[in-house]
Design brief:
single chain; 9 strands; five-stranded antiparallel beta sheet; four-stranded antiparallel beta sheet; alpha+beta
Length: 192
């Protein structure tokens, strides 16, 4: 009876088990490849979102504000102070955009009274805490203007006379995951 029972028991042969293990290994390898591709895609997506937030959004805002500038109070490589009248309500705003050595990119706006003095802070935004313009010695602003009235825009070097500024290149450099990313925009101050 024992011998007969062994003949009736059916199981898997060693060959069948090896084939199943090989197929399982192939499926797991494909799944692992898909998982790695998903993580890489997420990293790329995170980097694009970071660049859009830290570079794209401030550049778009700065370009819009600088295009509306009516007067430049001060122009330096890492900061600019200018006036706008965004609402066309004859109340000017003083804008200060600056990159600091602490890595912040900041934009503040004050309302001005009729004497040109600030009355209240209406906007205070820190666009980035990962800015490396100062650390990399890359000016945030580069200025151009027609200094000799020949109709040709020329780069303004050295100490910039704010009244000569007509065109501004804004270059933002940020650091993400140990790498530098940058972009730039140009703004022509058409209201000056």
């Amino acid at each position: 009876m024992v011998a007969r029972r062994l003949k009736d028991d059916r199981g898997f042969s060693l060959t069948e088990l090896i084939v199943v293990l090989v197929l399982l290994a192939v499926v797991l390898a494909i799944s692992y490849g898909g998982l790695i591709a998903t993580y890489r895609a997420r990293d790329v997506s995170d980097r694009h979102a970071f660049v859009a937030t830290e570079i794209g959004n401030p550049l778009a805002t700065f370009e819009k504000m600088l295009t509306q500038a009516t007067y430049v109070d001060a122009a330096g490589p890492y900061s600019i102070t200018f006036r706008t009248d965004r609402d066309n309500d004859n109340v000017q705003e003083r804008n200060i955009i600056e990159a600091t050595s602490a890595g912040t990119l900041r934009h503040r706006v004050w309302l001005l009274n009729s004497f040109g003095n600030p009355t209240s802070l209406t906007y205070d935004a820190t666009w980035s805490e990962n800015n490396v313009n100062v650390a990399r010695s890359r000016p945030l602003f580069q200025y151009s203007g027609d200094t000799d009235d020949d109709g040709v825009m020329e780069p303004l070097a050295g100490v910039v006379n704010p009244q000569e500024v007509q065109f501004v290149d804004v270059v933002i450099v940020v650091q993400y995951d140990g790498r530098d990313f940058s972009d730039e925009r140009s703004a022509f101050m058409r209201n000056r």
